[in-house]
2-methylcitrate dehydratase (Microbacterium halimionae), 508 residues
Amino acid sequence: MTISHYLRVHRSDENLAREGQLAWHLAEVATDPVELEPEVIEMIINRIIDNAAVAAASLTRHPVSAARQQALDHAVSVSGSGSTIFGCALERRTSPEWAAWANGVAVRELDYHDTFLAAEYSHPGDNIPPILAVAQHVGVDGMALARGIATGYEIQMDLVRAISLHKHKIDHVAHLGPSAAAGIGTMLGLDTATIMQAIGQALHTTTATRQSRKGEISTWKAHAPAFAGKMAVEAVDRAMRGETSPSPIYEGEDGVIAWMLDGPDASYNVPLPEAGEPKRAILDSYTKEHSAEYQAQAWIDLARRLGTENPELRDPANIESIVLHTSHHTHYVIGSGANDPQKYDPAASRETLDHSIPYIFTVALQDGAWHHVDSYAPERAAREDTVALWHKVTTAEDAEWTRRYHSEDPDEKAFGGRVEIQLTNGETVIEEIAVADAHPLGARPFARENYIAKFRMLAEPVLEPAEIDRFIALAERLPELTVDEVRELTIVAKPGVLANAPAPKGLF
């Protein structure tokens, strides 16, 4: 049965014992030797495949190439065998923190992997690159890797359920640093005290502002979770050497809660599995069928259907206005409530358009489809009829959709809303959608065959058919993998693919 850990800010003279600190309780979850349930292992396999799919699709993009080149410029550290880099030959390895960096950027670049939304939002699949990198470097088997990943998902998602970061303009990866550190600790069998110190250091070094997701969004958006993963690897290394971290990191009077979140009078209740309770959080997360912000997934499905069934809605001459009535988060983060003029700019970056639901809804409505490259192409964004229709789309917060967005009931939780389209002839079209088609409660829930199909679709341009089959077969055997097989759990690009990708030079 899940327990709730209460935490508040403590003055220094209260001398909060380590056993009362959230970081200690998170470490206790990490050290609990509970067995993984079969359905959890199956979902971990799905997400390993999903991560590889979106990484394959991004191999030649500039941010991924830059991160990969940084990793390639660093040798394998002396105490292990090194870690693989997505796209590179199996024998081409780097130090684990740099593999976490390069692979984390590749996974995150297209905004196309799994998600969990509650008090905060997250992409818990971001835990996999740092945990896998360490697994390959030190040499652990597939079951140990799976246990580490289960912990990473559990802790990040438990923090996301309870503690809002974006309300205080703190980037969501502040929940990722601690979870990745804890996951690595589980995988390595570290003790509670060591993992606690790693969690504290990872949190301390990964709190940053949300400007990375505001206005003209830069390429750092993809690098932010990779940086958190890299910091988690380094935090574990430091803790293993017996070094300590700021404490109490959450509850201290000069700590994260008091000065970065809800202030000195704040308190939270963080749900954590009790001792012996299986780590099942991953089952509450969901992946993306479309390469866009998760709050856009359901809207893409609705727009595709509306445009296909009513082609006249694609012509801006027929439209007076389109209003998407939706949750607070969707309205203020990716909607017109953000007051970001860049969200209506045809020359905006891909990262900015990915966070513009007016743009996304317009293109999905007109095209009856959504593509991870074509839908963001500059020529697509600049099309005259698209720009005209796009500028007629706004969002509005609806209290009921906000309530459903934050609902703890999985059967009620929703990420969509209601669209009202006012036509120039006076007619009105009203439709609504609660969850994306690929959501577990959607019209076409994702299952193993969908994850594999997504991988094949995205990997075929850059991987040989035999390499695609090799990776799928390996991933599907995860709990049985030997140490050597875990070291092959990566994707190798076709000859020439990386040679034709950007190879930017820097300091290293």
Remarks:
- The radius of gyration is 22 Å.
